[in-house]
Amino acid sequence: GGPRRLLLVSNSTLHGGGYLGHCQQHIQSFLGEKVKRVLFVPYALHDRDAYARTAREKFESLGYGLDSIHESCDPVEAVRKSEAIFIGGGNTFRLLKALYDNSLIQEIRKRVLEDGIPYMGSSAGTNVATISINTTNDMPIVYPPSLQALGLVPFNINPHYLDPDVKSTHMGETREERIRQYHEEPNTPPVL
Questions:
Q1: What is the per-residue pLDDT for 13?
Q2: Cys staple from 48: which of 70, 98, 146, 163, with CB 3.0 to 4.6 Å?
Q3: What is the CATH number of the domain that holds 117?
């Protein structure tokens, strides 16, 4: 296949800004003028209709049409026909389970890695672009058949990573300590 075209965003909203406001120039530069419609995957949140409305409003304001995969009678065919894919944030376990339940893992991999269509992920959508969801911050509210994800990049990502606050009196484990524990297991990939 051709080169991977990925835009992996840690979060969809920054304090004081609107949905994807902090990265909208990157989105327009990334998608360019050839892409006219984006296929949105809202599976990480429970209220998919509301999530699709939010995403549609933002993408239309940037000049792109948006189709939500949950409104399609055939999600696999929707992926096959897509010009670009955007998977939004929410709960990573819920998202990955829905991708498996709808037989989308291999279809998305093929479209991105072989056909070269643009893939954008935000938070949970970034998590599932990696090798596995082993390094997500989310709670396992549902159980996907595997923790293996799309494998669009040869590493894992920890969205929302924060360095420890040296002035904090909180004595709990930090994200850095959790990731170090992950790497105590053999053959774990790098974590960005």
A1: 82
A2: 70
A3: 3.40.50.880
Domain that holds residue 84: 6-184
190 located within any domain: no
**pTM for the full predicted model:** 0.93
Secondary element (H or E) of residue 42: none
Q: Is residue 161 part of a domain?
A: yes
CB proximity list for 192: less than 8 A, separation 6 or greater = 155, 156, 157, 158
Banded pLDDT at 148 (limits 50, 70, 90): very high
Q: In 3-state terms, what secondary structure has residue 146?
A: coil
- Write down how long the chain is: 192
State how far the Cα of 79 lies from the Cα of 91, in Å rounded to an integer: 21
Q: Which residues are catalytic?
A: 123, 138, 160
CA distance 187 to 182: 10
Write out pLDDT tens, residues 95-136. Answer: 999 999 999 999 999 999 999 999 999 999 999 999 999 999
